Structures are given as C-alpha cells and as structure tokens.
Amino acid sequence: MTISDRVRIKDVRVLSDGWTTLKSTTFDYRRANGEWQTQHRETYERDNAAAILPYNRAGRTVILVRQFRLPAFIRGYDDLLIEAAAGVLDDAAPEVRIRAEAEEETGYRLHDVHKVFEAFMSPGAITEKLHFFVAEYEPHMRVSAGGGLEHEGEDIEVLELSIDEALAMIADGRIIDAKAIMLLQYAALHIFR
C-alpha cells in the first residue's frame, strides 16, 4: 500500500494568495491500524528553493550572509539572521538558480556548484523543498559587493568567516538558521576534516 492509497482529499480552500498561498485542506487518512480519520491542515504553498555554502578549503573559510527576517523578529529574535545564501527557484533548475542567487547575495560568481542533499525544512506546514549546494570559491571570483536586490527588499551583509568561528557561532546561538547549520555541519564532516 502506498501513501496515495491512504489519503483522500475531500476539500481544499485558498485562505490567502499573497506572498505565498495559504490553503486549508480537509482529508481522510487511513491510520496504521486501518481506520480512516478525517483531518484538517493548513499549508503554505511555497515554491522550491536552493541554498549554498561557498567555501575556501585552503583558507578554511566560508561565506554566509546576514539579513533581517520578519518571522524571526516576530518570534522575539532581535537581531539580523546569519544564513546560507538562498533563494526560490522561480522555475529554473536548482543549479542555475543557486549560481545566480549566490552572485546576487554574496557577490561571488561560483563555477562548480555541487548538490549535496535535499530536505523539506518544515514539512508539517510548508510545501517548499530545499536543494543544498556547496561550491569552492577564490577571492578573484568576487565580481560585486553582493547585498541582494534592493527591489526585492534585500539588504544583505556578506560575511567571510573561518569554519571554526562559524561552527562556534552555532554552538553559542549566533547562527540559528537551519540552512546554515546543515551546510556548515556538512562542511565540517566532508570538506574541512
């Protein structure tokens, strides 16, 4: 039996269709014991996205970005978030979009991007799946100051940190972005061993 055999969608209503689409779905779900149960869930229909960690193996450094995030602020986080550069795919292939996003946000024109994994970041409420990448950078690859696109409301600071400092920032709570944490841990295990 597949999951499709265990789910019957009964009703889908659009509650909001702004920056993302919020839907309310009523469905029947066949539990492991065989009984059907009616459930109601709200989901944010968000396009898939990609995130990247540029790294310099010889210098033992990584590039991260720092920016304002309203949801974190609403939850009481009174600082800018330190994150991995990321963006929505906008119907482009993940490898193509992440190169463009990295250049927009960090100012680095990355050549060889390597996909390392995919993950649903909040599968209980958000449909978005992230494609995670790493790419080696050299100082000569910096073609602009980065900072993001002003017309999209981006006001991004570019950070070059040692891998050791970045990992310490996870431990002491200065880095709390899941994308950054996952990519930094990947780098610690597979790049900077």
Automatic annotation (TrEMBL):
Its cofactor is Mg(2+). CDD domains: NUDIX_GDPMK (cd24157). It comes from the Bacteria. Keywords: Hydrolase. It catalyses: GDP-alpha-D-mannose + H2O = alpha-D-mannose 1-phosphate + GMP + 2 H(+). Gene3D superfamilies: Nucleoside Triphosphate Pyrophosphohydrolase (3.90.79.10). The keyword Hydrolase applies. Residues 45-183 form the Nudix hydrolase domain. InterPro entries: NDP_pyrophosphatase (IPR004385), NUDIX_hydrolase-like_dom_sf (IPR015797), NUDIX_hydrolase_dom (IPR000086). NCBIfam families: nudix-type nucleoside diphosphatase, YffH/AdpP family. Belongs to the Nudix hydrolase family. NudK subfamily. Homodimer. This is GDP-mannose pyrophosphatase. It comes from Bradyrhizobium campsiandrae.
